[in-house]
Structures are given as structure tokens and as C-alpha cells.
Design brief:
Layout: H1 2-17, E1 37-42, H2 58-61, E2 78-81, E3 88-91, E4 96-99, H3 103-106, E5 112-119, H4 125-134, H5 144-152, E6 162-166, E7 189-192, H6 198-201, H7 212-231, H8 237-259, H9 267-273, H10 277-290, E8 295-299, H11 312-336, E9 343-348, E10 352-358, E11 372-375, E12 379-384, E13 392-394, E14 396-397, E15 404-406, E16 409-410, H12 411-421, E17 431-433, E18 436-438
Parallel strand pairs: 1-8, 1-9, 5-13, 5-16, 6-7, 6-8
Antiparallel strand pairs: 2-10, 3-4, 5-12, 9-12, 10-11, 14-15, 17-18
């Protein structure tokens, strides 16, 4: 008992000594926030809005025929109208329609706001991923998770403030959770969820050669040396980030092993989420935000699984089955624990898919005519919790689902709205770099107040 109290006091003393140097201590936003944390369920590759949350009956009428309008330009050539292979039904008091491939998510439509009028800039994965994550498709910019931890810090000093989980890597890899020109402390921490043991999920989480007390003494000495080194090099953000990373790594030994170990959840909870890799990730996400992590990004799979240029019927059905049960469980779990009211859950990809069939092209879609091309002109995402109005379909695409036409919402507008929900004026959350003030939304973005409850 005495030894345990001594270690706790030692750790607290270290935190107090390093408080002025810790960039992740909690900070106040510009105004009272509606949300304190965010879970981003990223369906990398681009899910089809007309097969998930934006039904278009006219596609059935025109199936196999050219649309009575010119097909918009996308990455590849497309042909005739392609009717959705799935049935849609209405759910909840709101009566919002949902595809049959998302039966568990559908039960929560009264808590969900479907954004049907999203728009990006180009029909290519790489720039669209950068736009969705970093607010800029070409230049290196900090990711949204980095901006949020820069602005708010994090509530748990024993865990990173920003965590990205993926079984493998998405396209653009770590650029999706980069800190850009922000100090390195705000970089997202990547977790490869193909691995199962906590020791494999987080490398070097345990030190088999030294006790915590010995490590603490070593770190105290290292801190003194590094701080002396830093005094001669003012404003060296990489050095400051390295000092902080040593401290965080030490503290994570005490809490990360618990947070990432889902076997500590009751069996009925694990069954509720399911047994897929996605289920594991989403359950871990709940455990992380419950412990004070500010931003958790959950990627669906390696590379771009939702990129169904062909076989969309079997592809989207299989992908939805991998995550739908866990998404429904997450929303139920958060609501039951009283966390949904101040936690934003966001679902979507980097763009949508065309309502027309993609035409065969060697090396691109196996010569089949049963898939959809990328579509940045109009697509759907959804938000739940954190002050968002549930049971609402905001905006609309045209009658075929090709282009956003009503209450068009650019990715910059989404970012501005998310920052507003988290308590920030997106025009004032800035960082001085290269002689100018930068922000997540660059010089764009409008808060969409209509979706805020």
C-alpha cells in the first residue's frame, strides 16, 4: 500500500513539474460547447449514398437507360442509370429511409442527422481524403483531430488525445492524421488493429527491464538534460514534442493496457457489438472516449474497402455487415451511459458514388458493369449526438443523386459546424505559421445552424 501511494505521488509530482510544458492539458474553448469529444467512423473508399441513406426511386424507372441529363464528369466514364440493388424502409418517428444493409443503424434514425448534400472538390481518393481530414487537398495541413487537441487539449493525460485505428493503412497513410505545422504533440497516434494483444497494438507499452519507479528516475534525468538542451534552442517544437512523448509513453503503461483490452468488457457487451475487426475497433473507441480521449478515428479497413467500382451489390452488403451491428451498439451504449449528448459520432467516406454504372476499362473494374464510380458532386454522411438534431435529413441531391442541389454543404462547412459544436469559432481557431494565421477551414466554411438542436 505504501509503495503504491509512493508511486502515485511520484507520478503526480512529475505531472505538476511538467504542467507548464504539457501541451495536452485541458483548455477552454471559445464558448460553451455542445460536444466534448468526437468519434469519426471513416468508411474509406467512398460508400454509395444512393445505396445507403439517400434512396432515388427514379433510378429504378431509368435502370439500363441513359439519364435525361448529361452524366457529370467523374474519375472514369459512366453509362446508364444503375438502380440500387437494395430495398429501403422508413424508420423511427422521423420516418427517415435507410437501406436494408444497415438494419442496426436504422433503429437509431431519430438520433441521426443525415447530411444528403455533401460536396467535395475532385473525384480522386488522395485529395478527397486530405480535404476531409485536413481541410486542404494539396498542401500539407494539420488534421481535424490535431486541430481539436491543439484547441482543447485532452481530459486524460495518460492517453493520447487523438487516436486513429485502422487494420492496416488507408490511402495516404499517416498524412490522414498528421499534425502538419502544429507542434508534434498533436499528431494522431496510429493503432494497427490487425493485431490482437495489447502489447502488439501499442509497441513497447511495457518495459520488461525496468520498474516504473526506475523509469521515472530515468525520465526525470532525461527531462533535465533535454530542457537544458531546449533552452539554447527556443521554440523548437519537435524537441518539446519529443520530451512530451517520453512522459506520455511512461504514463500510458498504467492506462492504455486497460483501455485497449476489450476482454475486460462484460460478455453481453462484447456480443452486442459483434466479433468483427470493426466491432473491436468501435468498442475500443467507446472505451477511449469514456476515458477522456478527445478524438478517435475508426477506419473501416486497409486501403479503400468501400471503393466498389464493380460488384457493388455484394461488396456494399458485406462491408455494411462488418460494421452495422457495432454502430448500432455504439449508439445504444453511448446513449445508455449518458455520453451521446456530448459526443459526436460521424459516419461517412471521402465522397460518394455515381448513380450511373461505371463502364468497363482495362485494369480498373475487371471488365464488369455492376459498380459505381467516385462521385464528389453529391454524397451523404451522418452525424449523431453532441448537439446535432436527430431525425433530420438535411439538404438534397438531384432526383437521380448525382449532384447536391439543396442546402449544399461543402466539407469546409462540415468542419466549421463540427468546430462550432465543440465550442470554437472556426475563424478564430488559428495557428501562426510562415507569416500568416492558418485554420482548419482555410478561408472558407459556414456553420450550418439548421442541423444543431
Amino acid at each position: 500500500m505504501r509503495s503504491g501511494m509512493g508511486l502515485g505521488a511520484l507520478g503526480l509530482g512529475s505531472l505538476l513539474r511538467g504542467a507548464s510544458h504539457n501541451p495536452l492539458l485541458p483548455k477552454a474553448p471559445h464558448f460553451r460547447p455542445r460536444a466534448k469529444r468526437l468519434i469519426h467512423l471513416f468508411m474509406n473508399g467512398g460508400p454509395s449514398h444512393v445505396d445507403t441513406f439517400d434512396p432515388k426511386p427514379l433510378l429504378t424507372k431509368y435502370a439500363g437507360k441513359m439519364l435525361p441529363m448529361r452524366n457529370l464528369a467523374t474519375e472514369r466514364k459512366t453509362g446508364a442509370a444503375f438502380a440500387s440493388p437494395y430495398k429501403f424502409s422508413q424508420y423511427g418517428q422521423s420516418g427517415l429511409p435507410v437501406s436494408e444493409i444497415f438494419p442496426h443503424t436504422a433503429k437509431h434514425m431519430d438520433d441521426i442527422c443525415v447530411l444528403r448534400s455533401m460536396r467535395a472538390d475532385v473525384p480522386n481518393h488522395e485529395p478527397s481524403l486530405m480535404l476531409m481530414n485536413c481541410g486542404e487537398s494539396i498542401q500539407v495541413r494539420p488534421s481535424m483531430g490535431s486541430w481539436l487537441t491543439y484547441g482543447l487539449g485532452t481530459e486524460n493525460q495518460n492517453l493520447p488525445g487523438f487516436i486513429a485505428m485502422c487494420p492496416g493503412y488507408p490511402i495516404q497513410e499517416s498524412q490522414n492524421w498528421q499534425c502538419g505545422f502544429l507542434p508534434g504533440s498533436y499528431q494522431g497516434t496510429y493503432i494497427d488493429t490487425r493485431k490482437k494483444k495489447v502489447e502488439d497494438l501499442i509497441e513497447h507499452i511495457r518495459n520488461p527491464h525496468m520498474t516504473l519507479v526506475q523509469q521515472r528516475r530515468q525520465l526525470d534525468l532525461l527531462r533535465k538534460i533535454n530542457e537544458r538542451h531546449a533552452k539554447a534552442r527556443q521554440n523548437e517544437s519537435q524537441l518539446e514534442a519529443r520530451i512530451h512523448s517520453f512522459e506520455l509513453a511512461y504514463r500510458m503503461q498504467m492506462e492504455a493496457t486497460d483501455a485497449f483490452d476489450i476482454t475486460r468488457e462484460p460478455e453481453h457487451v462484447r456480443k452486442q457489438y459483434g466479433n468483427t475487426t470493426q466491432a473491436k475497433q468501435i468498442l475500443i473507441a467507446r472505451r477511449l472516449i469514456e476515458r477522456g480521449v478527445r478524438y478517435v478515428q475508426v477506419w473501416h479497413g486497409n486501403s479503400q474497402p468501400w471503393d466498389n467500382h464493380d460488384d457493388i451489390e455484394s461488396g456494399h452488403r458485406s462491408l455494411a455487415k462488418q460494421c452495422d451491428q457495432a454502430i448500432g451498439a455504439l449508439l445504444s451504449d453511448l446513449k445508455q451511459r449518458g455520453l451521446l449528448e456530448d459526443t459526436i459520432v460521424m459516419w461517412g467516406g471521402e465522397f460518394g458514388r455515381t448513380p450511373t454504372v461505371e463502364l468497363p476499362k482495362p485494369g480498373s473494374n475487371a471488365g464488369k458493369i455492376n459498380g459505381r464510380d467516385h462521385n464528389h458532386h453529391g454524397f451523404s454522411m451522418w452525424l449523431a449526438g453532441g448537439g446535432v438534431r436527430g431525425g433530420l435529413a438535411y439538404g438534397a441531391t438531384d432526383e437521380f443523386g448525382f449532384k447536391a442541389v439543396d442546402n449544399v454543404m461543402h466539407v469546409h462547412d462540415l468542419h466549421a459546424t463540427l468546430l462550432h459544436l465543440m465550442g470554437f469559432d472556426h475563424e478564430k481557431l488559428t495557428f501562426r505559421h510562415a507569416g500568416r494565421d492558418f485554420r482548419l477551414t482555410d478561408v472558407h466554411g459556414e456553420v450550418v445552424h439548421d442541423i444543431i438542436g
